Amino acid sequence: MWDYTEKVKDHFYNPRNVGVIENPDGVGEVGSLACGDMLKLTFKLDDEGKIGDVKFQTFGCGSAIASASALTELIKGKTLEQADKITNQDIAEYLGGLPEEKMHCSVMGREALEAAIANYRGEKAPKEEGEIVCKCFGVTDKAIERAIKENGLTTVEQVTYYTKAGGGCGQCHPKIQEIIDRVIKETGGGIWRVKPERKKLSNIQKMKLVEETIKNEIAPALQKEGGDIELIDIEGDRVVVALRGTCSQCVLSGWTMQSFVQAKLREFVSPELVVEEAKE
């Protein structure tokens, strides 16, 4: 189970600045429904050139909502130059910390802010630069490299926590490791964080979390497209499910199973989970 601070819970249950600004000066959109997380940030400058109003809309977990809410509070009243210096670590620290597995939510907030500022300036958003390494989540080598440098990441697992890269099919893991090795070599090692020990879930906790994730995070997205999903069995780290409705006949069902269902369960439950489709 994730250990959330009271401030994270407050910004989740009582999010600030929700909505969309009409005729905004800047608009930033990152993520996608296919990837499971999406954030839209809009802002309007006041007469002094400061962020007078800012609002957000997001599709994602509690950490995504809390991170976006915190971001809006952090940048309100700041100039674009001041706002542009805010990092994902600033967002996490404002919330009193985030579980490492949820740090990608703070990164998504920072990326939305950068995209909105770039939109105002008529520039290309930094996230769009580079070569795509993780095709499941559309993460570039530049985004991975930046996350490694800014957060002191040393493992593929950590990169997944911060960027979602590698959280789908896993084919990009060797490339991610290459980027990690290169950055460490180029920086001479730098100052690297000690990875916190991951809390081990009991079998009951794991089963409950799998059921909740399917019910609250996966099924609603599939149902919007006329599909559905049924949990068949859980055995250790092996989760067996069956796609229903239109999803069961879709030619992209294999992609849905690996890049959405498995990715979501790895994000919310455990990166060791392997999802299989029931043979019926």
Task: Summarize the model shown.
The chain is of the alpha+beta class.
Task: Explain what you see.
This protein starts with 5 loop residues before the first helix and ends with a strand. With 280 residues, the protein is of the alpha+beta class. The strands form three sheets. A three-stranded antiparallel beta sheet has the order 1-2-3. It contains eleven helices and eight strands. It has three domains: 6-122, Sufe protein. Chain: A (Alpha-Beta Complex), CATH 3.90.1010.10; 129-187, Arc Repressor Mutant, subunit A (Orthogonal Bundle), CATH 1.10.10.1100; 203-277, GMP Synthetase, Chain A, domain 3 (2-Layer Sandwich). It has helices spanning 6-13, 62-75, 80-83, 88-94, 103-121, 141-151, 156-163, 173-187, 203-223, 246-249, 253-268, and strands spanning 26-32, 37-45, 51-59, 132-134, 139-140, 227-235, 238-245, 274-277.
Text of the CATH class of the largest domain: Alpha Beta
Largest β-sheet summary: 3 strands, antiparallel
- Beta strand %: 15-25%
Strand order of the largest sheet: 1-2-3
Shape descriptor reads: globular
Rg calculated over all Cα atoms: 19 Å
Q: Kindly state the mean pLDDT as a whole number?
A: 88
The secondary-structure class comes to alpha+beta
Number of distinct beta strands: 8
CATH topology category name of the largest domain: Sufe protein. Chain: A
Low-pLDDT runs: none
Relative helix content: 40-55%
